[in-house]
Design brief:
19 strands, about 5% helix, rod-shaped, single chain, mainly beta, about 45% strand
């Protein structure tokens, strides 16, 4: 039987028949039936190279191909998920005899959106004493960033353009009389988009100070007693021997208080101002003396 593309004959061949002069005509019927065919369509993500879905169909040669899911409906479904159609080579074709020619592809890419984002980084510098109390007003510096990117609406991920770092300037540490800060300056720092805020703490420690006190006898000009003391700035000056008691003791020895500039002050930053004097003098008493002279 003659070959017809896409069809199969009911009889591959018609067998030979022996005939003679008196034989009747011979009739053989050969029926051609359309071959069973298959088709396939793939939905391909050109961004990732992945096949998102595959749909199949089966039928007979030269029949219109009908997939289990309508191709246009499928494309619309992907569009709702933010895909964009690149190409579609299926247009309601009929089955061909070669099944490899019944394979179709729909190519899609991701929708993208330009986006902008902002950020800021703040440096806070706190100034405090050793006990945690505030020594100076807080200082803050803020730098602001902006960046542009492209958001993939399918995956939700964003490719951001690079953002240059910025510099937060140095902060000079204020001077406080009687205290020494643990640093003289908060250094500059480079920060990037997305960095955490920065907090720096500067601690002031009270300076070591000394004090002295003299008890002076103004009558003789001599120093009767001298003491020194050591402590921290801002704390009360305490001598080993209480100056008030020393005055009481001297008064019991007939000294008289002239002046006393020590009032239990606190240490000052200038040690010259931590020097004190107590002046005393001898008590004096009027006396009379009588004498008798006799001439003989």
């Amino acid at each position: 039987s003659p070959k017809i593309v896409g069809f199969t004959a009911s009889k591959p061949e018609v067998k030979a028949v022996e005939v003679n002069y008196q034989s009747s005509d011979v009739h053989e019927l050969v029926i051609y039936a359309a071959n069973a065919q298959t088709a396939q369509i793939k939905y391909i993500d050109d961004v990732t190279g992945n096949t998102l879905e595959t749909d199949g169909a089966s039928g007979r040669f030269n029949e219109s191909i009908v997939f289990s899911h309508n191709v246009n409906d499928q494309i619309n479904k992907f569009k709702q998920a933010h895909y964009k159609l690149v190409s579609n080579n299926f247009d309601g074709q009929k089955y061909q005899a070669d099944n490899t020619k019944n394979v179709y592809e729909v190519h899609l890419i991701h929708e993208r959106q330009n986006v902008h984002s902002t950020d800021s980084v703040t440096e806070t510098v706190k100034f405090q004493y050793a006990d945690g109390s505030q020594a100076q007003p807080v200082k803050t510096q803020t730098v602001n960033f902006g960046r542009d990117g492209i958001k993939d609406l399918v995956t939700g991920t964003t490719a951001w353009m690079p953002v240059d770092p910025q510099t937060i300037g140095a902060v000079d540490v204020p001077v406080i009389d009687g205290y020494t800060a643990d640093i003289d300056q908060v250094p500059t720092v480079k920060v990037n988009f997305g960095d955490d805020d920065i907090t720096k703490v500067v601690t002031y420690i009270a300076n070591d100070q000394n004090a002295g006190i003299k008890i002076i006898d103004d009558t003789t000009g001599k120093v009767l007693n001298m003491q020194v003391a050591n402590g921290k700035f801002g704390t009360e000056i305490q001598f080993k021997q209480d100056p008030d008691q020393r005055v009481i003791d001297l008064q019991a020895q007939h000294y008289e208080l002239v002046s006393d500039n020590f009032k239990h002050q606190k240490y000052q930053a200038d040690n010259a101002k931590n020097q004190f004097e107590i002046h005393v003098k001898h008590q004096m008493m009027d006396v009379q003396r009588t004498d008798k002279v006799t001439e003989t």
